[in-house]
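User: Please predict the structure of the protein below. I'd like the answer in structure-token form so I can feed it into my own downstream comparison script.

Assistant: Understood. Taking the following sequence of 471 residues as input:
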Amino acid sequence: MRLSLARRWRLGIAVFVVLLSFGCAAQHPEPAPGAYSLDESSTSLPAKPDKAPTLADDQFTYSNVQVAGAARLEITPRAPVIMGGYGVCFLDYNSCRWSVGVHDPLYATALYLGTGPERLLLIHADLVGLTSSDINLIRKAVAERVPVPYQNIVIASSHTHHGPDTIGLWGSIIPPTTGRNGEYIPFMRARMAAAGVQAFNARLPARLSYTVATQSELHRNEKEDVDPDAVVDDTLTLLKIEDKNGQVIATLTNWGCHPTTGRQRNHRISADWVGGFYKAMRRRAPGLAMFVNGAIGASIQPNHKWEGNPGYDAGPLAFADAMGAALADQVIGLMDHTTPISPDATLRVHSGHATATMTNSLYRFGSHVGILDLPVPKVGDSFTAPFTAATLGPIRLGTVPGEITPVFGNQIRDILGGDAQIIVGLAQEYTGYIITPEQYDDPRYSYEKMLCISPTFGEAIVDGYSKINFY
């Protein structure tokens, strides 16, 4: 007997609660109203100018010189918050997974690249993810203050599972209560926008180089335990930016793996192994290190069997520090072996959209009751998300709006072409898992299906990239 849409909706909600509610953690009281102190003066976001900035305001607009700038600001919560990434609660909001202390800071890191009138600004945060509700406000705030087009501003997240719930999914399902902290969110947005403005203001003539390697020891596709055909992308791409004197301004590292070494038991704020990577790079490498996550969906996780894993008994985030340091070791070793990008290479930025039919009634329910901070259409209606692509000589960059399976990530890599590709995951929108239609219908991927907008969304993204002329 075919179930009605209403019955399927109620059944889906019930399954959602059962599968995710195990994530409730130790008791922690909700902070009193106003306990989180938002100091607006500390955001470093300059006031919006009376006149919108134009390309003519940039001294480098009418030259073909490559310019770059980088900046970093801390976005660590200043009081307990509900953490995102693991489980949800129901019936008891106070028993959700509240943060207790800080293991390492969370950052917003920004990198600006430009040649002549073309420019790209990438702002990356140590967060579980951001939806267009916040992303659009951040992009707007930056575009109002510096002459970078709105559509050329990329906002992405690492997907750490040990930061604040910035999506809303990890609050209470019954009664419906978002996990987002209403005082932290504006602070976070302002700091991210400020990092972007500072990166632009720090721009100076630069020379760029790159290299591509592989890293297979530190991650694995956990689905290989049940699916022998599970795919993993081991590609590690490094972009090095130096000033004219050869001093390193910044590095951009791209690789794919969930920041989930600490697992659910951890309650300390942390960027996970990305934080360990930053700590090691800060100690041992010149310039500002930036990391952007790649194709991590379905499901690329830290390799707990890695021989350098000190084990959970050494501390809930000891593995994170060791794994981040190991990745930093490899990146530092690559920094002296990069290939220069021609100073005549020019930047080109492209924008596109992917559209698919919404099939996820759980997302629709979460959006409807105010839990999920994502504008979700009705089931059966169209859902659209943006993506951004860029080229600079042999380098290609492409964003994806969620946790994309490496199957699609590799297809996008092929379409981008060039000698090196940077796949920026969880960028411009948060849509959960982006899996293939075959995975969507495979019971072994039931969890990923539950957090997938549509079985055809990944194909729509690939199709969107195929329509861009990169040459």
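That's the full token string. The chain has one domain: 17-30+76-471.
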